[in-house]
Design brief:
The chain folds into two domains: 47 residues, Alpha-Beta Plaits, CATH 3.30.70.2010; 36 residues, Wheat Germ Agglutinin (Isolectin 2), domain 1, CATH 3.30.60.70. The radius of gyration is 16 Å and the shape is elongated. It is of the alpha+beta class. The chain has three helices and three strands, in the order ααββαβ.
Length: 87
Amino acid sequence: MVAVRTVISSLAEKPVDAHDVYLRLHLLSHRLVRPHGQNLDGVFAHLANVAWTSLGPVAVDDLEKVRLNARAEGLHLAVTSVDKFPG
């Protein structure tokens, strides 16, 4: 695990990376900023697609490895969607 420190100097500026995007979404989710109170232009360009599964989110590139590991442990892995957000 690696700690990441993210500082947004101005919510009026576009996000610069995925850390910036997740912090802005966190602020919005916890109602610390008003809807439309920050610039979210280009957020999707900074986010990777994720396989949302019955065992939690999995990087798309790791899906088959995780599926095989789950099977070896007697677990069933069901993919519910592949997207930037759970669906």
